[in-house]
Amino acid sequence: MSRNLIGPELQRVIDLIGKLPGLGPRSARRVALYLLKRRDALLIPLAEALSDAAGKITRCSVCGTYDTVDPCTVCSTPGRDQSVICVVQDVPDLWALERAGSYRGQYHILGGVLSALDGVGPEKLNLDSLVQRSAQPEVKEIILALSATVDGQTTAHYISDRLEHLDVRISRLAQGLPVGGELDHLDDGTLTAAMMSRRGLD
Amino acid sequence: MSRNLIGPELQRVIDLIGKLPGLGPRSARRVALYLLKRRDALLIPLAEALSDAAGKITRCSVCGTYDTVDPCTVCSTPGRDQSVICVVQDVPDLWALERAGSYRGQYHILGGVLSALDGVGPEKLNLDSLVQRSAQPEVKEIILALSATVDGQTTAHYISDRLEHLDVRISRLAQGLPVGGELDHLDDGTLTAAMMSRRGLD
Ligand SMILES: [Zn+2]
Ligand SMILES: [Zn+2]
After folding, report:
1. From which residue to which do the C4-type zinc fingers run (chains A, B) (predicted)?
2. Is the domain of A72 the same as that of A165?
3. How many structural domains are present in chain B?
4. Cβ within 8 Å, pair B4-A73
5. Is residue B61 part of a domain?
6. Residue B88 lies in a domain
7. pLDDT given at position B193
8. Do A98 and B30 touch (CB under 8 A)?
9. Residue A2 has pLDDT above 50, yes or no
10. N or C: less crowded end of chain B, CB within 10 Å?
11. Domain end marker among A56, A75, A98
12. B198-to-A69, B105, B144, B175 alpha-carbon distances in Å
């Protein structure tokens, strides 16, 4: 009865919002209603912004982040250090490191970490392109800026093995990463400390 | 730096999502990224569904709920009892009562409750139209199905005063409403019990 009552257009909005992370069916109904009540101020602008983003934002073919230009703003900034690539799990980690402002090299977005539990194997990660990039003569160091979780550190060791044959220094963030902590949750000072005191992988 | 890095299109999506209830800046970034990663499966469908909803869904000029037709599906269903109007705080309360399935009369959406703290006075509620509807000769009973909160009960008494001069019975949901409980959180059985044992306002 509720489904008929709500109508297919609103039901579709509720169903799609309910697929977003952290939003269950009840909060999806609340969000949908909140949008309907703010049709001109929020509903229409959000519809347009999402459509605009879908049309313009693409993945950077070099590092894998999202931007409206390819290569992305970071990859195409002339002053940045070309000799070092910082490998992160996902885009918010790049954003967090850029907010911290202590790093001025290149990035590489893995798109995840290896996880037996979640069924994430090496083939699901952006790894082949990392090996290719790491083999370029100007690249001297790869920083594995992965979370201090079991999966993050497993992934760091796996990447280290994959790059072993190359003439690059492999380091990881060290001091400051709380055990079990996720990179994206850390404050700028902690991230900067971890970046400064990075050390070679054992 | 982070704002320049993200780009205006994505920043706009993040800002708008951050205005939704229950979503802070951090979860807005997570949701935006989740959408970008599911461009065809979620981002584009959601943009279209929101645009579609904005174009088609309107408020019912009779009861105030949302629907694609005006009068809404509930108001225009022929079999429903025309002699009773159930007054609810907001649209999800109508949905909850329809899910419970124990009520087959008319509805009236107030759009809020009186609240000194939140600065909600009578002029912000859908009250004038309630008084007009209640004055129609076929209307015999007004059920005040408001939450058992201080604001809800204050509003019930205010409405009761406004309708005092009319020849209608005014009742409210009674048994089953836990003190401080919000209508939208109750299970169907509790709602049905409360509806069945409604009683005249003191
Ligand atoms: Zn890039
Ligand atoms: Zn209606």
Report:
1. 60-75
2. yes
3. 2
4. yes
5. no
6. yes
7. 66
8. no
9. no
10. C
11. A56
12. 63, 14, 9, 7
**Which residues of chain B have a CB within 8 Å of the CB of A5?**
73-74, 95, 98
Residue pair A202/A157 in contact (Cβ under 8 Å)? The answer is no
**Between chains, do A50 and B50 touch, taking CB under 8 Å as contact?**
yes
Does the pLDDT at position A176 exceed 80? no
B residues 90-109 closer than 8 Å to A (CB): 90-92, 95, 98-99, 101
Report the 3 state secondary structure along A62-93: CCCCEECCCCCCCCCCCCCCCCEEEEECCHHH
Percent pLDDT > 70 in chain B is 88
Chain B residues whose CB is inside 8 A of the A60 CB are none
**Is residue B170 a part of any domain in this protein?**
yes
> Which of B21, B67, B101 is nearest residue A31 as measured by Cβ atoms?
B21
pLDDT at residue A33, as a whole number: 92
**Residues A63 and A108: beta-carbon distance below 8 Å:** yes
Residue B154: inside a domain? yes
Give me the pLDDT at residue B98, please: 86
Q: A95 and B13 in contact by Cβ < 8 A?
A: no
* pLDDT band, residue A5 (cuts 50/70/90): confident
Question: Whole-number mean pLDDT of chain B?
Answer: 87
Please check whether residues A174 and A101 belong to one and the same domain: yes
Contact between B57 and A5 using a beta-carbon 8 Å cutoff: no
Q: How far apart are CA B70 and CA B73, in angstroms?
A: 8
CA B151 – ligand 1 centroid, Å: 53
Range of the domain at B14: 3-56
Chain B neighbors of A51, CB-CB under 8 A: 44, 47-48, 51
